[in-house]
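TL;DR need structure tokens for one chain.
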Amino acid sequence: MYIPGYGYGRVEDTGGAIKGPTRIDLFYGSHQQALEWGRRKVSVKVWQ
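>> reply
TL;DR here they are.
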């Protein structure tokens, strides 16, 4: 998938902590980087 402002990524986890079909959890190398990203509403492009 491609996430604007984040870049390309792939699905690594489909765990139950994410509630709803319109939410994703992004990986960051540090807690600080995740805090800087925060919560955003963006449109992603998904390939299957």
